[in-house]
Design goal:
Elements lengths: L6 E2 H8 L3 H9 L6 E2 L3 E3 L1 H10 L5
């Protein structure tokens, strides 16, 4: 597992235009899949899946 390929909460918040607090809430609510290795880390494909689940474009 390469940690360099994971995104931090800060990076995800910036990409989504949300606060880091809101991204952590989404992780707690299990709306965004994340792994905690010292801090929360998100796979880019999990972020993409979250975005697609919120889109009305299929």
């Amino acid at each position: 597992m390469l940690l360099k390929s994971y995104l931090t909460v800060e990076q995800v918040a910036e990409q989504l235009g949300l606060s880091e607090y809101r991204v952590r809430e989404l992780i707690r609510e299990k709306q965004i899949c994340a792994t905690k290795i010292g801090r929360w880390l998100i796979k880019p494909e999990d972020l993409e899946g979250f975005i697609k689940s919120r889109s009305n474009i299929r």
